[in-house]
Amino acid sequence: MPANDLMDDFPPAPDRLVTLSNWRKAPFSAWGFRNVRRLIPTANIAASPDASGLEMSLEEIGHIGFTGHDSHPTTVKQALGATRTDAFVVLRRGRIAAEWYDNGMDAATPHIVFSVSKSICGTLGGILAGRGLLDPDDRVIDYVPELASSVYAGCTIRHLLDMAVGIAFNEDYEDPKGDVVRYRHAAGWDPLPAGEPPIDLRSFLALQRPDGQKHGELFHYVSTNSDVLGWVYERACDQAYAEILSEYLWVPLGAERDAYITVDAYGAMRAAGGICVAPRDLARFGEMIRRRGVANGRQVVPGTWIDDINQRGDPGAWARSEIAEIFPQANYRSQWYRIDRDRGVLIAFGIHGQFIYVHPEAEVVIVRMASEATPLDPDRVRGWRRGFDAIAEYFL
Questions:
Q1: ∠ at Cα 194 (27, 115), nearest 5°?
Q2: Residue 92 and residue 106: Cα distance in Å, rounded?
């Protein structure tokens, strides 16, 4: 069903109605991912009153070929039209080299970016550390004593940033009875089943238990770690997470459009996956990372924080992880994936096909937003990585 046929009457017909129960499922997700605040409570992330411009320097890149998913040869143009891509922006030296939209999207429409939110969160941590508001080596419970009886009692902020917490949480998005289902209920992303007692996000975080692994030794991807990071930031700044994002990142970045973030019943913000942002602003964010934290002629993120992402991270911890097959030879640092250690290529990645790709040598930043039906298909992820690499090679 075309996205423009969803929610198109008053009221919509049952087969075109997007609800809290179906908004992440195809075909409803094509509407749901760009209309999250009509389904879930949100908090605003104010844009800059002096937005930075993005010049146009368009290039024809549709012909660029690569090996897509299932090892099929394709081109950029073919792949965009065949893979439920909603938005695609390519920056070359900070100028828009290519732009493509579908499924009701445009340059100014906020779209949920799922776990790309984590990379935004990790970057924000560098700003706060640079300003002396927190230290990555601090204990989590020094900021959030409510977690003293949880797995996070023995963690540092650095353990959260690097997904190095020994936590008994299985990030399986399709297990109908697993940890992620309960997590979504707590965050307000799914309706609570009849008879199940309500729980809020912060209370859910306090229930998380250890798995016996020592903190800091294994990369174990768990979204709750990023939500705890957001809570730590709130305590460090005495501000709500959305306000911190706006003041320290979105405004200095020169963001053109307000973003927003989902909140639970008590106002807790889902730092791990709830940010919704316009495509061009996400491209501005990626360009700032490419330029070592600089935007609009000012150092927004300490350059040393970007250097640390590129130079640190534990390849061994990554190689032993459950998702190492997605990006072989990668490592993870401060909520970013470094997928090419020789060239310093970074990726921010979210389920259902969300990406920021940063290739410093080619001076390229690529943003993709999508409404893929499957939350996580490693073969599709690897296919798009090859596509991004092919675009970067074209510009080298």
A1: 45
A2: 20
Q: Give the pTM.
A: 0.97
pLDDT of residue 354: 98
Give pLDDT tens digits for 72-97: 999 999 999 999 999 999 999 999 99
Structure tokens at 192: 């609570």
- What are the residue ranges of helices labelled H in 108-178? 116-130, 157-161
Is residue 115 among the annotated active site residues?
yes
* 310 closest CA partner among 320, 301, 323, 299: 301
Q: How many residues does this entry show for the chain?
A: 396
Residues contacting residue 266 through CB under 8 Å, at least 6 positions apart: 200, 201, 202
Q: Which pLDDT score is estimated for 387?
A: 98
DSSP code per residue over 256-318: SS-EEEEB-TT--B-TTT-EEE-HHHHHHHHHHHHTTTEETTEESS-HHHHHHHHH-S-HHHH
Span 19-28, pLDDT tens digits? 999 999 999 9
Measure the CA–CA gap between 391 and 91, rounded to whole angstroms.
11
Side chain identity at residue 149, one-letter code: S
- Output the pLDDT for position 22: 97
Q: Are strands 73-75 and 65-67 parallel, antiparallel or unpaired?
A: antiparallel
Pick from 275, 216, 217: which is nearest to 250 by CA?
275
Candidates 52, 115, 226, 371; catalytic one? 115
Q: Give how far the C-alpha of residue 78 lies from the chain's centroid of Cα atoms, to the nearest Å.
A: 25
Planar angle of CA 171, 116, 199, nearest 5 degrees: 50
Coil, strand, or helix at residue 78?
A: helix
Return the pLDDT at 297: 92
- Encoding tokens for residue 276? 């919704």
Query: Treating both helix axes as pointing N-terminal to C-terminal, what angle do 303-311 and 116-130 enclose, rounded to 10 degrees?
Result: 130
CATH architecture, range 33-395: 3-Layer(aba) Sandwich (3.40)
Domain boundaries along the sequence of the chain: 1-32, 33-395
Residues of the chain with pLDDT under 70: 1
Strands of the sheet with 364-370, listed across from one edge: 95-101, 85-92, 364-370, 354-359, 345-350, 336-340, 331-333
| pLDDT computed for residue 1 by the predictor | 61
Whether the Cβ atoms of residue 85 and residue 370 lie closer than 8 Å to each other = yes
